[in-house]
Write a structure and sequence with these properties.
single chain; 168 residues; binds zinc ion
Length: 168
């Protein structure tokens, strides 16, 4: 269980590679279960790569009906950090930029540790779907109230039907 990764420890480890796990609820995220991550950190010259699988269960709010629903996390994390600033002294640490399409690098700007807790917080938030819907049957709150107040004249015929089970 690791919350902070020390770059010095990483440099001194075998093959400059560290395996570690994270297993904790994250503040700011509605966790049903602790967030579990099986991670590997590698020092690659000027960069540090952290990759691995993240699992857990969180509560999200449905965009349509506003009810909370359980959402299962299971995604691959793959983050690159640059040990020294790539953009010069004017940039602040922790900034993220794209070195090529789809490959983002977080600038450590000389910082000697990586905040694993924060990394997981950011990754979990980013893994949420753009459209949060509780299920395929969700019709949404507005739609439901609309439907309740409108009576379809075609359905009124059913009100007059007499169902007699003895006839069958
Ligand atoms: Zn819903």
């Amino acid at each position: 269980m690791k919350k902070i990764l020390s770059l010095e420890e990483l440099e001194n480890s075998t093959n400059k590679t560290l395996y570690f796990t994270f297993d904790e609820k994250i503040e700011g995220i509605d966790c049903v279960t602790p967030i579990y991550a099986d991670l590997c950190a590698k020092s690659l010259g000027d960069f540090v790569e952290i990759s691995g699988n993240v699992k857990g269960k969180v509560l999200l709010e449905c965009d349509l009906c506003l009810d909370k629903f359980e959402y299962e996390l299971d995604f691959e994390l793959d983050e690159l950090f640059s040990k020294d600033s790539l953009l010069g002294d004017y940039e602040e640490a922790g900034q993220e930029f794209e070195i090529k399409e789809g490959q983002f690098v977080t600038d450590l700007n000389g910082e000697k540790e990586i905040d694993i807790y924060d990394l997981l917080y950011q990754s979990v938030i980013l893994s949420f779907p753009n459209k949060k819907v509780c299920g395929i049957n969700c019709k949404g709150r507005e739609y439901l109230t609309e439907e309740d107040s409108i009576t379809d004249p075609r359905l009124e015929v059913f009100n007059n039907l007499q169902i007699n089970p003895k006839n069958s």
